[in-house]
Amino acid sequence: MLPIVLDRTAPTSVSAQIAAAIRELIANGSLQAGEPVPSSRALAAGLGIARGTVVAAYDQLIAESYLVSKPGGKTTVHADAVAATPRNLTVRADLASEKIPHSTQPTTRGGGENRTRPHRRQSETASIDPRPTTRRNRGVNDSAWREAWRSAAENQPIAPADTVQGLVSLRRAIAEHLRLMRSMLVDPDDIFITSGARDGLFQLLNSLDAGHSVRVGVEHPGYPGLRKVIEYAPAHAVQVSVDRHGILAQNLPDLDAVLVTPNHLYPSGGAMPAPRRLELLTRAAARGAIVIEDDLDSEYRHIGPVLPSLWELAPDTVAHLGTFSQVLTPDARIGYLIVPSALHEPLRQMRSELGISPSPIAQRAVAAYLESGGLRRQITKRRRDLVRRRNLAARALEPYGAQMYAGATALVELDSEVAARRVLERCLAHGVEVGDLAEYWRTPVHGIVLGYGDVPLEELERGLQVLADALHA
């Protein structure tokens, strides 16, 4: 999906905005000669607009020789598309004027930490667990993946320089992957190979020379995945409240860093809108804090526009944490860290002295898989699967006002703690353990939350039926 942000309040037509955005992507090298653009149907679905609007934009670009379309084939970037295209639509300019959209996500405000949680009767019969915190290793059933590992296992010499920052071949493959899948233009020299997001965060916090225990702002509530890392690093977490649009930047205290998940506000699955992103970056820079962007589930956004990463907006003050654990398998133990140039030397020195480097065999295997296009095929397949699962959840929970955004979570708000407890207990009695919405918010927001992305399909169908019956009752 192309990172196109539409402003429906602007006097410029939506089709013209799309055309201008694609010209910009060609101008800055995100789209290169001969590369395909999304089908008009796929782009229209991603942006939530009529297909005819995208067709009109493509027709205009074809007439201007930016794109070329062959009968029965894909629409691609014209071979003669010039790189000197006037940049009449820049990311920052668009984001500055983008309005925060209306959202029905639950609002989080400050409140007491020790309020009573709804009682949940435990059940030994619970066998289906679609809670958002439950993640499963899906594995990779792909002959290209197996061949990449066989090839990587061959005895191949490694340059000494590769052992510090990571194999050059993998860093280049990651940069190309990010360009093709996210339109992120990353210099391979800014990439450090890690064993995953936790490893990347730990290394980053240890490389920050704050002269004291590093103060890290964290979303509260927010995704718990990286919180434990802060406890084991020379750092301590400082809770910063959030609302339905993400972290409240105006509440940032004196910090050295702030850790956020802008592409997946947890557990709702929404994304931080453009104005809030800019506000966060501006206020963090004013406090001298580095923004650490956890790219949680970004590859699996399957509805709505793809917003630029925080790193793209401020590469000199944002560190970007990426991992292949979800799109491939945690067993590969490969991730990456994109950091500002000022942090290169501290990171390289620490990694060199401690001998930190993921397995060269794993690095070669992932590099080969990326270069073959295998990961892009896996992501496309996974997105189709998520759309199917989302449709199942939408049909089952539509009568109860289910809220579903990006990622793979569904929320159902209820009127009271008593109602939520009854639904939870009915589900448990039938062997299904869904999440309690009150456990994620400090204010009295009651309801049910479930993750539909990793549960086996037959279990998901049964779990949705049990939940629907409990809500109906």
UniProtKB/TrEMBL annotation:
Annotated ranges, domain HTH gntR-type:
12-80
One GO MF term attached to the UniProt entry: transaminase activity
Quick check: keyword Methyltransferase in the entry? no
| UniProt keyword annotations, A-Z | Aminotransferase, DNA-binding, Pyridoxal phosphate, Transcription, Transcription regulation, Transferase
The family database entries (PROSITE patterns) matched by this protein are listed as: HTH_GNTR
Its recorded name reads PLP-dependent aminotransferase family protein
**SMART domains found in the cross-reference section:** HTH_GNTR
Q: Which family does it belong to?
A: In the C-terminal section; belongs to the class-I pyridoxal-phosphate-dependent aminotransferase family.
- Superkingdom of this protein's organism: Bacteria
Which Pfam family, any one, appears in the UniProt record? Answer: GntR
Residue ranges for the region (Disordered) are: 93-142
